[in-house]
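Need tokens for this chain, all 188 residues.
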Amino acid sequence: MTADPARHRTPEELEGALDHIRQAPADHGTLKLIVRRPAVDEREVLDTGMLSLDEGLVGDTWNQRSSTKTPDGGPLLDAQLNIMNARAAAAVAGPIERWALAGDQLYIDLDISLETLPAGTQLAIGEAVIEVTAEPHTGCGKFSSRFGLDALRFVNSPTGRALNLRGINARVVTPGPIHTGNTVTRLN
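Here are the structure tokens for all 188 residues:
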């Protein structure tokens, strides 16, 4: 009998993953997964993507989403890209085939904690450069329905928030191609 990869993780399993998550590299990591969202609740896993100043991840629907945080109701530039720590994604979702359900575009093996990557930090990925923004990235009802209430509590706990377990937001500052396996380098 094998474990069901779609089952929700227990609080003990989630807490047990913290040491591994905390061991993520701080300066140089790896882009593990690129996910484009061509429509609501649709996901396309890419080997190669293009980051654009106007579109974020080209082909993603970020620039078509409205926001109550902008004066005109248009897309929020500070949430152009959603990034999740690959180790946190594995803890919450299980196998890499399930990570895309979280709804983020980039999954990186890098310490994305508030202490390591405060707003304004720039990261080089392939030929592109992105900048971490101060816009909070928290779990929502969809995250809870896909991974369970315990996972939502875990990522939004004080420890989860300090480590940015639900993820961070960023915007593109230098466009360019990115590829799964690219090194992710903290520039400042």
